Amino acid sequence: MIDISQMVAFSGVAFLMVITPGPNMIYLISRSISQGKSAGLISLVGIIFGFIFYMACAALGITALLFAVPYAYDTIKILGALYLLWLAWNAIKPNGVSAFQTVELTPDSSPKLFLMGFLTNLLNPKIAIMYLSLLPQFIQPDHGSVFIQSLTLGLIQIFVSVLVNVLIIFSAGFIADFMNQKPIWAQVQKWMMGTVLSALAIRLLVEEKK
User: Fold this and answer.
1) pLDDT over 90, % of the chain
2) Whole-model pTM?
3) Distance CA 156, CA 125 (A)
């Protein structure tokens, strides 16, 4: 079984990743403002299924395969760190686009909302990095089944993401208005995200393979 300390640490990483602006956040905020909270929740269900897909891949052996194949783990880890640094740069660069600068979306049917949420998450590199680079950092092969550990961590990530995203959906309008009316807070948010992403990238690079 995974140590409680590892679960808490991974929960913290999952929280930091979900509050980092990305495709999921931009889509949920824009959809909730354009079409209402119910549309945002339906989209979130699609996003959850995207999480389940990645969790299944991790639990069914992709993560274990990365441990077994020479250099595969290190390659994914380095690519993951580079991607996190790229996200950090995009968060702080001049004239960067904030997640709270929403776009107008045309109303869609419930099945399309679900599908768009699913595809947005499935094609989100940040989530792939979460499961292929960050999640293995918290797996301890000498503490039992890698499958059970992967499943446990995946469920923790999904739980944290659902809680945060539901709050985002119900407060999307307020958050967007506040950030647009208070540019200083938008700048603080950008620099905080840049710092968090850089720290995660450094942690990923220096962490030894377990």
Assistant:
1) 19
2) 0.72
3) 19
